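INFO batch 0412 | record 1 of 1 | parsing
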Amino acid sequence: MSRKVAVIVGSLRKGSFNRKVARAMQAMAPQNLAMEIVEIGQLPLYNEDDDQGDPPQSWVEFRQRLKAADAVLFVTPEYNRSIPGALKNALDVGSRPYGANAWGGKPGAVISVSPGAIGGFGANHHLRQTFVFLDIPCMQQPEAYLGGISDAAFSAQGGFADEGMRGFVQGFVDAYARWVEAYLAPA
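INFO prediction complete | emitting tokens
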């Protein structure tokens, strides 16, 4: 059985390293995971007033895509030692209206990607803090911080050029696949 994974990329940048990592991970995914990037850039800023009666269509579609997923995977940069504003907005849109949290109960994981030396550590941990309220059970290990990322990290085909990085990310993806199966397995 293939589990549907909503992949949320925290960067909106056209040449985003995070999107490149997400795409490379899609290609590495084992048979039991069907990873699909769910876009967040089109979501208007969350305002509860706009969620009364007739919410923006982009919010409705985003929530439907989350609800249809079995699991969630976040690939994010770090902005000012935290998560990007677009990602925070997506978390808010998906968790509302109150009582209709589209994130709830979906096993999740985070990989942070940054040209900086610490690999988005602050964003990774801030995002994990939101998981508690959003009811996203988080894979604890392995933690994944890709620091020092650049265009040189990727091959012309879109995979990882560096064997060490490829092996590390493959280990993360495989652990996530096991985590999703274990979490979603019938008791």
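INFO post-check: The two ends are 17 Å apart (CA to CA).
INFO record closed
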